[in-house]
Amino acid sequence: MIPNVAPAPADSAEPTAAAVLPKALRQSAVKKFSGSKLFASPASVAGVIWLAVLVAASLTAPLWLPYKTEDQDFTAVLSGPTAAHWLGTDELGRDILSRIFASAAGTLGTSMITVMVAVGLGTTLAMLAAAAGDRVETVISRVTEVMMSLPGTVIILAVIGAVGTNIPLIMAILGVLISAGMYRVMLGQAKSLQSQLYVDAAKVDGVSTLGISLRHVLPGLANTIVVQSALIFAVGMLIQAGLAFIGFGPPIPEPSWGGMIQGASQNVYNAPWLMVPTGAVLALTVLSANAIGNALGKAPNATASHLPSAAARRRRAKAVAAIAAAAPAPNDSAKNTLSVCNLSVGVDSDGAGHGVRLVTDVSFDVEPGTVLGLVGESGCGKTMTALSLLGLLPSGVSVTGGQILWNGRNLAAATDKDMEGVRGREVALISQEPMRALDPMFTVGYQLTAAIRRLRGMGRAEAKAEALGLLEKVGIVDAARILKTYPHQISGGMAQRVAIALALSGRPRLLVADEPTTALDVTVQAEILSLLRGLVKDTGMSVVMVTHDLGVVADLCDQVAVMYAGEVVENGRTDSILDNPRHPYTLALLAADPHANHAADMPERLATISGQVPQPKDWPSTCRFAARCQFAGSACMVPVPLLPSGTGDGLVRCVKADELAVEGLDWVATDVPSHHVLNLVEAGTAPAGPAKAPAGLERRTVEKDHA
Amino acid sequence: MALFITKRLLMALATVLVVAVLAFLLVHAMPGSPGAVSLGAGASQEAIAEVNQRLGWNDPLLAQFFTWLGAAVQGDFGISLIDGRSVSADLASRLPVTASLAAGATLLSAVLGIGLGVTAAVRGGMADRVIGGVCGMAVALPAFWIGIIFVYLLAVQSSVFPATGYVPFEASPQDWALSLALPVITLAVGGAAFIARQTRASMLEALQQEHIRTLRATATPTWKILYVHALRYASLPIVAGIALQFIQLFGGSVIAEQLFAMPGLGQAVQNSVSTHDAPSVQGVVVIATVVVVAVNLVLELATKFLDPKLRAS
Ligand code: SF4
């Protein structure tokens, strides 16, 4: 009967945007209380209104109620709703409506006692545990664990035995029992708030522990406090009603909701109607509190899932059919050649990917046996481009245009079913964090042999032999032992080798590698890169390599596509791009990369690129790099096309590319010079500029000017 | 692992001990001395004092506690002040009732809850919203209200099930099952809703893990990703949720026993609290704690066993 308020399931899922948008966009784990969320959901609005009406009606009850709670109308015993008694009468002819509303204030008020004790105590304990260090935390956690494993109902009843039916006191003790669950919910958050940098700063400044808790930790917990209060309020009401139902409510003639339901249950055979009004009012009140709590907390959301729900798959099949119908039949492309044309990827705002664009008009080709590098900072759409090659975009993100031609098929218009035939067998994936890419619940051997049996149609024994062979091929010496381990038992470098073996298990012709070395130690990085180089040579497969590291590009890639803010800004052969970069962004990346500079011409200061990649929703229609470009001028405030750069078959997206090539300018190690900022601001307002200068761009540069 | 189990066992023992102290103190705070309770109104002061003397009521508190604890450890909780029967014998006959009730309700909640939660997470869309709405209603309606409606619809109107009463398993397995059906269903409504929510959230979290993408990249069929890999990953929090739910349902049996007139522990608590029968209250509190703590311990060990990281260490 006493629910432990355990970490609410509703709080455990990540916010929607997290998987889709760059890290900079992610909201902090701890949210401030926001009233607007309360009114965003119709259910919680209704809840607030109902609670307000109930409280108001109950407090003013003596003024408007048609009957006193004890008035007995012997002419209408156990009546249904009538003009005289809107909600009927009970077995003594007392008016139900009057009794419900007269007892509402008491019920709600005493439930608030539980809330205040539970939340107050739970929060205080959590802040104390977070502030006072591990020893104190261990003690408090042990005590709350004990409290949570108690049969709360039995204890509350024993307390009633000792103190009688003193409802406020009992509700307070109930609050103490519930505070253990509350503490559990709060502890993680309180600890993360306590470890914030500004809290360290405050400590250095000599702010007292109490001051820090009150000033920095408590406000961060506000939203959780409100959410949990609403949920505990509901629990308190239910328990109070339950106690009254079994006879431990207010003294007899006084009405209480639980007692009224008890009375109704005695007459359920001859007057079933009696069950309805009190039950409905109680349920509505509990629902209201829950609705408010749920609206303020984050509901678990399916959109960050790596496996779309059945509903999402149906939607996608429809969208794909539309693309397939609209696009021309793919022309006969050469075997094992990947040709991506004008690929666009967007966030679904309307179920068809027409929300924010994450990738726009990206084109590149990969010849058999060659390696293409997709280069750029985080948030430039490289990973989204790579994942779209396998049809593995996260839920809520989809291809909105263009084609992905592979062996004469357009993968962008393939159904999930069709893609199942392509994934693993023709196109395989290696991801960034090998530890997270392997299933922690199954052994390496199980994962590898299951894939081999599925993709190659082998029997159990044959697959096991193949798994051993594959592990040896990726440079694992004691393959037999590794097969028996779980992913958490092996090192990151070893796990990446296993992940590569897994990717190779279906003998793919194209490998998509999403930053395969970023999460590894430097020495291990080199080993994995040389393993990949060897594999390309041995198997003749092609690779699309996503990376931000130009050293990796120089090491491995034949072709490079530099991406910035969802677009390809420069594209061509690796040697010509590294030796002779034409786009300012490529120049900047090279200047900022210690590995890409040869020792001889290593500059004294490493250049930086000021600012950050803008968020996808802020991408301007002009040159997207303009806000950070050292060479930006008024000529840049127009949409810039991708044009031949003049070196080989290279392409570049910059109006000043030729000019820069002639002048031989370098990206210098300073911030953006002020005159360029002025230039930009002028460009935004000049009549010659584009009719509508992007407001965000203007504001940013002006801010920079002030700084 | 052995260390872990030892630690947990010690914790469990400590929990029971704390509750024993608590129960002892609470009972001593009850109004009325044992003599007064036992002899009822109208008994002479001398008679009351005589009974109190015999029961050791005038001994120092600490001595009383250890006498009681010593007997309790051997399974003797004294005799009831009301009817003079052995508390232990009474509780022993009641425990199976509550145990079948709580176990049945937990089992039904788990089966229903996991089914609904997985369906909501996997199907999404309309199915998700409908299940979410039903679960929201189910946790908002008090169990006793739902129980009365069940009695009215299933027992009174269609007389499929007996409305009240309990038939021991030894008497007739079939009637035993029928007599448990309504109370178990009543308790399981809220329990299933809770577990469904927990399952949905855990499944969604599992599907957000990056290894799901690896599985898709190696052409793992969808059913296998969902029901082998994701469910396996989600099983840890789900089992933890079921453990929590058992504690609640064990407590909830107080209501179900009252509603369906079942002679279980819940009824014993209620009666002994109403009549200030000190030995019975103490006994039932301790027994209830032992059961809940023991079941929790088993489920917690099961959770640890499900996690390869902990199993290996
Ligand atoms: S178009 Fe202008 S702003 Fe854009 S990269 Fe070229 S020079 Fe820089």
Question: Secondary structure elements and their pairing?
Answer:
The complex is a heterodimer of chains A (707) and B (313).
Chain A: H1 35-38, H2 42-59, H3 61-64, H4 96-132, H5 134-148, H6 152-163, H7 167-194, H8 197-204, H9 209-245, H10 257-266, H11 275-296, H12 310-326, E1 338-347, E2 357-366, E3 371-375, H13 382-388, E4 397-406, E5 409-410, H14 416-422, E6 427-430, H15 434-437, H16 444-456, H17 460-473, H18 479-483, H19 492-504, E7 510-514, H20 522-539, E8 542-547, H21 550-556, E9 559-564, E10 567-573, H22 574-579, H23 584-592, E11 643-644, E12 651-652, H24 657-663, H25 674-685, H26 695-706
Parallel strand pairs in A: 3-8, 3-9, 6-7, 7-8
Antiparallel strand pairs in A: 1-2, 1-4, 4-5, 9-10, 10-12, 11-12
Helix pairs in contact in A: 2-4, 2-11, 4-5, 4-7, 4-9, 5-7, 6-7, 7-9, 9-10, 9-11, 10-11, 16-17, 17-19, 25-26
Chain B: H1 2-28, H2 34-39, H3 45-54, H4 61-73, H5 87-123, H6 125-140, H7 143-157, H8 173-207, H9 210-217, H10 222-259, H11 265-275, H12 278-306, H13 308-312
Helix pairs in contact in B: 1-12, 5-6, 5-8, 5-10, 6-8, 7-8, 7-10, 8-10, 10-11, 10-12, 11-12
The structure holds iron/sulfur cluster (SF4).
Membrane topology (chain B): Multi-pass membrane protein
Organism (chain B): Pseudarthrobacter polychromogenes
Domain ABC transmembrane type-1 (chain B): 95-303
Structural summary, described in words:
- Chain B: This is Peptide ABC transporter.
- Chain B: It is found in: Cell membrane.
- The complex is a heterodimer of chains A (707) and B (313).
- Chain A has 707 residues and is an alpha/beta fold.
- Among the domains of chain A are: 241 residues, MetI-like fold (Orthogonal Bundle); 85 residues, no CATH class; 36 residues, no CATH class.
- In chain A, the strands form 2 sheets. Chain A has an 8-stranded mixed β-sheet, with helices on both faces.
- The two termini of chain A are 61 Å apart.
- With 313 residues, chain B is an all-alpha fold.
- Chain B starts with a helix and ends with a helix.
- In chain B, helix 5 packs antiparallel against helix 6 and helix 7 crosses helix 10.
- Chain B has 13 helices and no strands.
- The model of chain B has no long low-confidence stretch (mean pLDDT 86).
